[in-house]
């Protein structure tokens, strides 16, 4: 039953809820086709070294070029894909596409290719019993050096499934790298580090914005970097938007960052131009 807007009684049929459900059902059906009809688009956001700002890698960020609704961001369809299970097919598409692109760059650009590609993985994918085998087969067939692939998982995703930690260990055994995404926004950030084979902490944008906006934020980013250094983990600051933030992060020891200041999510071709222009400039 749903409560109608403004009403004080519970109704079994609420037209607004009905429409929302219809809409979700339609979008689900369309998303199924989107995978086979090539409507998914992989964008790439540079991950850069500090202080140079030179791209060392890129994170794949998914979009859906919907035939009527235009370009949709992940927030508009990933939660739906997670709830209806389509995320498994969508996630496979993203991984295949990322690996294909990474191999293409390495073949054509050699040393100038982005060194690392990061791919987001959600809880539902991590609990798919075939996920690890899928990744293993894909790596083997593509010939991509496993250490150039990084999988990003959130604390929430790891906590959502009891098999997640074990799956992460099996993935790690394939030689790839694992990042804990949006670090600090979940509930048991620190305890996860004891159980999970984490190579990289992606320090959430909220702390990065806070770094130049008050004492607490500054203390948190400074202490997080010391903490990752002691653990032998790399830190990437997410959501860097201003030169002041970048300078502060570098001052306290951050060596890697990502954010609109350095580049928005862009097409593969645009990322390629960016990295090749940078290597030419550096030569
Ligand atoms: P995320 O993995 O934490 O990715 C970073 C998000 O922050 C991206 O949003 C990116 O565009 C945005 N961002 C980067 N720099 C800045 C900045 O300087 N300022 C601001 N305001 N935002 C910045 P996007 O592309 O909308 O993705 C949102 C989330 O959707 C991602 O968060 C990730 O959790 C999820 N996602 C994206 N692609 C995939 C995918 O292929 N698979 C899965 N499972 N999830 C995905
Ligand atoms: Mg991410
Ligand atoms: Mg993040
Ligand atoms: Mg996020």
From TrEMBL:
Domain of life: Bacteria
Domain EAL residue range list: 24-279
Protein name per its UniProtKB record: Bifunctional diguanylate cyclase/phosphodiesterase
Organism in which the protein naturally occurs: Paractinoplanes ovalisporus
Lineage: Bacteria, Bacillati, Actinomycetota, Actinomycetes, Micromonosporales
Shown segment, full-protein numbering: 473 to 755 of 755
